[in-house]
């Protein structure tokens, strides 16, 4: 069930980013389940996860509806995550990477390598990579040992596209999307190496650069008319500046 739920989450996120649902549109479990060819349970769980990511919000008439958001909101949340997770990476490097943490992080690296090893990725591969990415970042946040920082990151992750696993798809360009992911995963490898060497300042800078890849990905996605169409009509003039 967990694998199916993750796959459904990836599929629904893709549909949202392709502008399949209009801002304010109600998202009902049954039609979505029929559309994806699954039962209602993974759809219900995926919708709850999407609410946590800030992409949808509770509907006044029950269930969920598409949230209205702007490119500026997304850019702000990504920037904040970069600073917060950069601090977490620095603390981990300064505290020292335990043997168990090293084993767990390197297990994530192997899972990411496996997901990205195919010439063409399917939804299961994206789901595997997304789960790995969530786990990788959470391991670092937990190992930082700062509860206030962890709460700040959790709160920021509830904003649109701030969470690590929220990967923006490239419209009709799966190979390009995979290239972004390969680049980001190479940064994972480097980050683990630097933290294990105890280089706090470099670990912080690398994590901030790593998170900035999400902003680069967003900027690219907003160049695609199909992606830009989902945002508020009043914000469309902004897309010409990306």
- How large is the share of residues in beta strands? under 5%
CATH class of the largest domain: Mainly Alpha
Shape: globular
Question: In total, how many beta strands?
Answer: 3
SSE run? HEHHEEHHHHHHHH
Task: Provide the CATH topology of the largest domain.
Answer: Four Helix Bundle (Hemerythrin (Met), subunit A)
Q: What's the CATH architecture of the largest domain? A: Up-down Bundle
Provide an overview of this structure:
- With 242 residues, this protein is mostly helical.
- The protein folds into two domains: 64 residues, Arc Repressor Mutant, subunit A (Orthogonal Bundle); 155 residues, Four Helix Bundle (Hemerythrin (Met), subunit A).
- It has eleven helices and three strands.
- A three-stranded antiparallel beta sheet has the order 1-3-2.
- α8 packs antiparallel against α9.
- The longest helix has 25 residues.
Provide keyphrases for this structure.
DNA-binding, disordered C terminus, WH_DNA-bd_sf, 3-stranded antiparallel beta sheet, 242 residues, mainly alpha, Arc Repressor Mutant, subunit A
